[in-house]
Protein: 18 kDa Sin3-associated polypeptide
Organism: Varroa destructor
Amino acid sequence: MLPMDGDKLGADKTVDREKTCPLLLRVFLSNIRHHSPSDYARGQVPANELQVYTWLDATLRELTGLVKEVNREARRKGTVFDFAFVFPDRNGPMYRVREIGTTVSGQKGPDDFKTLRECRFTIGDYLDIAITPPRGGNLRY
């Protein structure tokens, strides 16, 4: 894997978004729980893909905002966004899921300003977001 300019920076540094090329982040949305690792097996991915060009200093709050821009139902106050990386298992042909944080629409939380870099994102990882509506709400993905 080739290093990107953003990879040379420490975890506490921000990326110069004017000089650094963004990366393609493949995001998969699901309702209430994350996709199964088997949904990513054998070259397959879930159908509900959102492609986002962003940088390693993108925060979970920023990514939440991007999802809300394209999905009206996810804009409701109290909607929970659970983030996880999906990546190949080094010991076999399967994929692994690692939860990295949670944001809540309309509320501040401890994970809001976690960045992809701080969460140890690696180019090629997928981002799986399980979206849970507030009580009485329905979402479909």
